Amino acid sequence: MASSSSSSSASLSSQHAQLLxxxxxxxxxxxxxADLKSLSLQxxxxxxxxxxxxxxVPTKDAKKDDLVxxxxxxxxxxxWSIRAKDxxxxxxxxDLLRVFYTDLGSLLPASSNQPPLLGLSLLRLxxxxxxxxxxxxxxxxxxxxxxxxxxxxxxxxLERWLMEGSYSKVWRSRxxxxxxxxxxxxxxxxxxIRHEIxxxxxxxxxxxPLNDAATLLFFxxxxxxxxxxxxxxxxxxxxxxxxxxxxxxxxAAAGTYGDPIPKRAMIASNxxxxxxxxxxx
Length: 281
Known about the structure:
Layout lengths: L1 H23 L8 H20 L11 H20 L3 H17 L10 H14 L3 H9 L3 H6 L1 H15 L2 H6 L9 H23 L2 E3 H7 L5 H11 L2 E3 L4 E3 L1 H9 L8 H18 L1
């Protein structure tokens, strides 16, 4: 019986070591499909082994070394999920890691991956516009950790800029991420912002010059504007290089514009856009 347990532990350690080697060689920017699949298979086998050993959702009675090994596997899984662009998988790994970071945190040596992953989990909430959950999660974290960690300060700053409407600062943060995986959720956040800006444009304008629309929406290429316009149901006039907002045009055709936009609100909106343009230029 002891021999079987020892053999199982040795197998788990061997698989764990192989996983870490595979992950260290995985590209953080453009991993190949083959490498992602290989790592996925390793993670699946390890999660089965951890479940059989009672370590996937462990108790405080487990050995410290085994707990650290299990935490390593789940952390690799969380990072793999982002590189594979699998948000649901990332959520599952973070949920499993919370036991290690909270209930078992005082029993284990600190993990260098904990601050980046906590920051990524906050970014995940921001990118899905779950602001209330963002603040609830933030309140559960030690204030000293939040204040001292650039990984946690990054999403905190992003949330503040969002509340201020400083979207250009959010855009520039793509080039100032503390870790490569952060770009994935910042890009998702920018997509949310674009749709917020688009909703304002539809209410405030019948049409806009194409270049202005591209600038306001933080697009670098006209093809991106065209794709976004198709998604929103806008019409682009190639001859005049203007974009016409389809939703407003439809409302006009039906004679149902809804509540008129107050002049003061429109002026404030225009001034806000002008300030953003100045900061971009």
